[in-house]
């Protein structure tokens, strides 16, 4: 997914949620049954979100380091640069000017 | 004729490609008979089966150990020396294949081992909210962020979140802590 220079959003879901809590951990996948030498760090995120009715749900997901911030790893390819951190910085910069 | 004798480098390259698609990238419909008829039509099925198994085993070993080029050289040299191993021409084709496909195969292995949702995409928009003249607040910018999440082999789920400026900055602070943590990790010797 590329970060375009202009923010764009055609929301697939019309329902927006409020973020109640953001927890994270940095993990290292070492080995698995299909790959003895995985050796990759990842960021695991747990979000608590509340919908309009106030109901709270938990959503968990993982990002690789390149997905979080490509420049951190010298060996990063840009195959999946959702670029989580950089996009939040862009959002902060834009919201400040509005 | 033995499979090892008929094939040219191109056939083996094609075979390895198909094996990778089947074993790592989850591409459906790649059967033994399809491969034999397309790439090694002169080879009898029984013989092709064991040839295919051997190549699949080699590819899996290389991928599982995430071999660097030294390890790869050593491994393939050993394969050329043993009974029922590979020829040095075949070893060269395998080596070339791994060098050009390693990153993509590794990425598939990473995706396969992730049982949580992965982040597939992120879109966002900033709205300047304006309230009515009855409200004191007339300017509350809000960021709307859509996360595309999905488990391996499953369809995406979309999560839409709303943040005001305060919240955005809170998240940003948290993310800088994540970055600090990552930097600590990668600066440590392995």
Question: What is the element layout, followed by pairings?
Answer:
The complex is a heterodimer of chains A (98) and B (190).
Chain A: E1 17-29, E2 40-50, E3 56-64, H1 65-68, H2 84-97
Antiparallel strand pairs in A: 1-2, 2-3
Chain B: H1 3-6, H2 9-23, H3 32-39, H4 45-64, H5 69-81, H6 88-113, E1 117-129, E2 140-150, E3 157-164, H7 165-187
Antiparallel strand pairs in B: 1-2, 2-3
Helix pairs in contact in B: 2-4, 2-6, 5-6
InterPro entries (chain B): COMM, COMMD1_N, Murr1
Domain COMM (chain B): 118-186
Protein name (chain B): COMM domain-containing protein 1
Question: What keywords describe this structure?
Answer:
heterodimer; A: 98 residues; 3-stranded antiparallel beta sheet; 2 helices; 3 strands; 18% helix; B: alpha+beta; 7 helices; phosphatidylinositol-3,5-bisphosphate binding (chain B); phosphatidylinositol-3,4-bisphosphate binding (chain B); phosphatidylinositol-4,5-bisphosphate binding (chain B)
Question: What can you see in these coordinates?
Answer:
- The complex is a heterodimer of chains A (98) and B (190).
- Chain A is α+β, with helices and mostly antiparallel strands and 98 residues long.
- Chain A has two helices and three strands, in the order βββαα.
- Chain A has a three-stranded antiparallel sheet.
- In chain A, a hairpin with a 5-residue loop joins strand 2 and strand 3 (56-64).
- The radius of gyration of chain A is 16 Å and the shape is flat.
- Chain A starts with 16 loop residues before the first strand and ends with a helix.
- Residues 1-7 and 77-81 of chain A have low confidence and may be disordered.
- With 190 residues, chain B is α+β, with helices and mostly antiparallel strands.
- Chain B folds into two domains: 9-113, no CATH class; 117-187, Roll (Nuclear Transport Factor 2, Chain: A).
- Chain B is 57% helix and 17% strand.
- A three-stranded antiparallel sheet of chain B has the order 1-2-3.
- In chain B, helix 2 (9-23) runs parallel beside helix 6 (88-113).
- Chain B is elongated and about 85 Å long.
- Chains A and B meet through strand 1, strand 2, strand 3, helix 1 and helix 2 of A and helix 6, strand 1, strand 2, strand 3 and helix 7 of B.
- Strand 3 of chain A pairs parallel with strand 1 of chain B, so a sheet runs across the interface.
- Chain A: Residues 18-86 form the COMM domain.
- Chain A: InterPro entries: COMM, COMMD4/6/7/8.
């Amino acid at each position: 997914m590329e970060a375009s220079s202009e923010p764009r959003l055609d929301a697939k879901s019309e329902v927006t949620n409020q973020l109640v809590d953001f927890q994270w951990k940095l993990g290292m996948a070492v080995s698995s049954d299909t790959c003895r030498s995985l050796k990759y760090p990842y960021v695991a995120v747990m979000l608590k979100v509340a919908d309009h009715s106030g109901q709270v749900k938990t959503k968990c997901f993982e990002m690789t380091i390149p997905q979080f911030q490509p420049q951190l790893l010298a060996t990063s390819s840009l195959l999946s640069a959702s670029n989580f951190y950089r996009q939040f910085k862009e959002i902060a910069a834009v919201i400040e000017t509005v | 004729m033995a499979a090892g004798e008929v094939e040219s480098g191109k056939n083996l390259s094609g075979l390895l490609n198909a094996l990778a698609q089947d074993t790592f990238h989850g591409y459906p419909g790649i059967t033994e008979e399809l491969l034999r008829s397309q790439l090694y039509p002169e080879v009898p099925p029984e013989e092709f089966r064991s040839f295919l198994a051997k190549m699949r085993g080699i590819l899996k070993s290389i991928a599982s150990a995430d071999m660097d080029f030294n390890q790869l050289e050593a491994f393939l040299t050993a394969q050329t020396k043993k009974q029922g191993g590979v020829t040095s021409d075949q070893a060269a084709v395998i080596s070339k294949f791994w060098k050009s496909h390693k990153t993509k195969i590794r990425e598939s292995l990473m995706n396969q081992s992730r049982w949580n949702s992965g982040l597939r995409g992120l879109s966002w928009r900033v709205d300047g909210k304006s309230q009515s003249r009855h409200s004191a607040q007339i300017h509350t910018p809000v960021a709307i962020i859509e996360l595309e999440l999905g488990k391996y082999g499953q369809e995406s789920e979309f999560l839409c979140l709303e943040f005001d400026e305060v919240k955005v900055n809170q998240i940003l602070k948290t993310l800088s802590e994540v970055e600090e943590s990552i930097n600590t990790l990668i600066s440590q010797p392995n």
